[in-house]
């Protein structure tokens, strides 16, 4: 319920329902004649996008590095819901319930712990859609993740890569940043341009869309961000 996230009528409505918007656009960019058999979400957290993908695909695999997130996701798969604590202000918290929509077949989704920078492509197989949202700039070696994608996306399949490019050394050593740096001659290196260069041998750009999002801290404080949504077809 968006009103629980932002209880204000003047909130930026375009920034709400970020993950469902990204999933829907990803599916829209698949060729109509392309089968919708398997989808992979890398960086699935507790499964919101993976469950949304189950509306459109026969099988969905969600992978996350966090054992805790995968435990929660599997719990939601089993019961359809999970309680969580929302910070109101100071020490004041409120218990809320997150629920999967009743029309989603949760049995289509499998959650597993894994490292996005070291994916077992042989065990995973190939997919009609690989979806990675707000993941890339939180990986220690993002190029290693990009290097595995040609093995994961089926020919004519789609890669949905969505990121705000919030590079921080807390997550990614600077030598592994994909863009966001300045060369010795003062030239700025753009993240999108670098990603396009790295993907170019195997992927062609289908579309590029900007996605606003909100991250709630408490009832009166939110982070507003804009992710670069890029959609790539496997050649």
Would you summarize the structure shown here?
This protein is α/β, with parallel strands linked by helices and 235 residues long.
Largest β-sheet summary: 7 strands, mixed
SS summary, helix count: 7
**Whole-number count of domains:** 1
Q: What percentage of amino acids are in beta strands? A: 35-45%
- CATH H-level superfamily: Vaccinia Virus protein VP39
Shape: globular
Kindly provide the name of the CATH class: Alpha Beta
> Roughly how many Å apart are the termini?
39 Å
The CATH topology assignment is Rossmann fold
> Uncertain runs with pLDDT below 50, 5 residues or more?
none
Second rung of CATH, namely the architecture? 3-Layer(aba) Sandwich
Number of strands: 11
Mean pLDDT: 97
Helix content: 10-25%
Q: What is the rounded Rg?
A: 18 Å
Describe this structure in words.
This is Methyltransferase type 11 domain-containing protein. One of its GO terms (molecular function) is S-adenosylmethionine-dependent methyltransferase activity. InterPro entries: Methyltransf_11 (IPR013216), OvoA_Cterm (IPR027625), SAM-dependent_MTases_sf (IPR029063). It comes from Aphanomyces astaci. This protein is an alpha/beta fold. It has one domain: 3-Layer(aba) Sandwich (Rossmann fold). Helix content is 25%, strand content 36%. It contains 7 helices and 11 strands. The chain has a 7-stranded mixed beta sheet. A two-stranded antiparallel sheet has the order 3-4. A hairpin with a 2-residue loop joins β10 and β11. The longest helix is centred in the N-terminal third of the chain and has 13 residues. The termini are far apart. The mean pLDDT is 97.
């Amino acid at each position: 319920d968006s009103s629980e996230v932002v209880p204000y009528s003047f909130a930026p409505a375009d920034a709400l329902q970020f993950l469902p918007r990204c999933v829907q656009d990803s599916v829209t960019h698949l060729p109509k004649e392309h089968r919708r058999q398997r989808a992979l979400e890398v960086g699935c957290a507790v499964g919101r996008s993976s469950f949304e993908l189950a509306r459109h695909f026969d099988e969905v695999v969600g992978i996350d590095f966090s054992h805790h997130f995968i435990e929660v996701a599997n719990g939601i798969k089993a019961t359809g819901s999970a309680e969580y604590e929302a910070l109101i202000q100071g020490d004041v918290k409120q218990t809320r319930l997150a629920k999967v929509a009743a029309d989603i077949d949760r049995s289509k989704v499998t959650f597993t712990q894994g490292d996005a920078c070291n994916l077992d492509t042989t065990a995973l197989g190939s997919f009609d859609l690989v979806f990675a949202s707000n993941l890339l700039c939180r990986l220690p070696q993002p190029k290693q993740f990009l290097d595995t994608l040609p093995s994961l996306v089926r020919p004519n399949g789609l890669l949905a890569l969505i990121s705000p490019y919030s590079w921080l050394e807390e997550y990614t050593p600077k030598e592994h940043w994909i863009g966001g740096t300045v060369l010795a001659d003062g030239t700025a290196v753009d993240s999108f341009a670098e990603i396009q260069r790295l993907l170019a041998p195997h992927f062609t750009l289908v579309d590029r869309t900007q996605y606003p999002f909100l991250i709630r801290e408490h009832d009166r404080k939110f982070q507003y961000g804009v992710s670069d949504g890029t959609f790539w077809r496997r050649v």
